[in-house]
Amino acid sequence: MTTNNLKIPTIALGTWAWGDCGETGDGYFGSPLSKAGLEEVADKAHAANFTLWDTAVVYGMGRSETVLGQVLKRFARNQYQLSTKFTPQAAETSDDPVSDMLEQSLARLGTDYIDLYWIHNPADVARWTPHLIPLLKSGKVKHVGVSNHNLGEIELANQILGEAGFRVEAIQNHYSLLYRSSEQAGILDYSRSHCIPFFAYMVLEQGALTGKYSSETPLPQGSSRAETYNAMLPQLKALTDKLASVGHSQGAAAPDVATAWAIAKGTIPIIGVTKPHHVDGLVRAGSITLAGDDIAELEMLAEAADVNTRGWWEKEMQV
Asked: Quick one: fold of 12-305?
């Protein structure tokens, strides 16, 4: 009971960092951004046929959606897909907080519908999931998914939607070489068996798996990701060296290989893009074929790093 077919990409475009304020060291990522620079990113992505953009209300508390909406004005609405989220923890106290948050997102994004709308964090699945149904019926939301839900919560959301003739059409969780809880908890198997696309976020662990950063060249001081990752960079060196080595053999770079690994695992990686050359990396990642031995060694080195990159907002997937 959906009004059009969701186009499932090989790689989706992430705009979490677009919520930063634009000053180095200011914001979650500490990313220096400009509208002109992001327009260049969007143009390059469009030319390379990357068309699904993922954002959320809480990425800079509206800044990411606002900037993304401004940047995408250069394209016809049917030339891209928008993915954004309802976050229960940020909901207002009104009669219908889900509809209210959606309306705010629509206004910021400059559109009258969202291609893929998510329940972001599952504060209460039975309470919030039913609110998606009238949005689907209205056409303001074309497809729905759940993010940061464990297996039981996904099944409950699917049951609630199913009773109205709809279904969970996508799952989005943190998944990377360093954080495979959705795999260990059976969520990847569930997504495959129910033909539900699994979108993987933080595949590059906010830059820590790119090989760009080290103890000598840490992540931007003053950013939240620096506080999380800088101390563990020495433990990641063997893994990032292997990513770089595999990439070199295929004319690619370390982050391209980490992205290719996520694709090889049957997921759709959501990769943050803030610079034009990031799009070049996505093109390379989509053409990489990883040997089974390389996948096994990468996973072994990731386990040997023995780090926990679960976000403060995330709960354990295994229950």
From this structure: TIM Barrel (3.20.20)
